């Protein structure tokens, strides 16, 4: 709970608010390969990653397409499924042994109505997610594969050690073989 409380303190919650919010979360340990969200099911939880790396992915023509890989401090949610209570279009899987903090939608909604600071936190969370989606879309459409790889090196170098090559290739929109060539050229 200390980790979650510290995280909430960084988000501007005072001590009493932190205690109230932390009581609504549950700590969950996942093993490498465990699913947090399964495509086709309704997402009932938002999670915050304390330890570990996760993979958002969907199946396309029988192949996994990785769309996002959050690590510590990142949020875990199939956003449209959670917000609209519709089946998830993607799955979320632990790529490493992980620890997360989860809150059920009903408790989340109650916090939003009880605490104005939590509502502000929620709006900031949504804005951050929208920016991430926009950046990702823009980069995929305007940057070359080499430029996307360099950006990954600059912004998230830890992923190169923590995420298997085939998932990184999928995020970058290239085949694992093409990514190997890019890595060889850039080293």
From TrEMBL:
- A Pfam family that this protein carries is cNMP_binding
Name the InterPro entries for this protein: cNMP-bd_dom, cNMP-bd_dom_sf, RmlC-like_jellyroll
List each copy of the Cyclic nucleotide-binding domain by range: 11-111
What protein am I looking at?
Crp/Fnr family transcriptional regulator
């Amino acid at each position: 709970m200390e980790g979650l409380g510290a995280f909430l303190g960084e988000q501007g919650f005072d001590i009493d608010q932190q205690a109230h919010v932390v009581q609504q979360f549950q700590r969950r340990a996942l093993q490498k390969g465990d699913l947090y969200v399964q495509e086709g099911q309704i997402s009932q939880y938002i999670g915050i990653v304390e330890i570990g790396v996760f993979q958002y992915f969907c199946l396309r023509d029988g192949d996994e397409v990785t769309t996002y890989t959050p690590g510590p401090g990142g949020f875990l949610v199939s956003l449209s499924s959670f917000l609209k209570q519709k089946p998830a279009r993607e799955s979320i899987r632990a790529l490493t042994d992980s620890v997360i903090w989860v809150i059920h939608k009903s408790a989340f909604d109650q916090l939003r109505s009880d605490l104005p600071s939590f509502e502000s936190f929620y709006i900031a969370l949504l804005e951050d997610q929208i920016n991430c989606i926009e950046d990702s879309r823009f980069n995929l459409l305007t940057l070359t594969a080499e430029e996307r790889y360099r950006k990954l090196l600059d912004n998230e170098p830890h992923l190169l050690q923590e995420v298997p090559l085939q998932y990184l290739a999928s995020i970058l929109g290239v085949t694992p073989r093409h990514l190997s060539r890019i890595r060889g050229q850039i080293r």
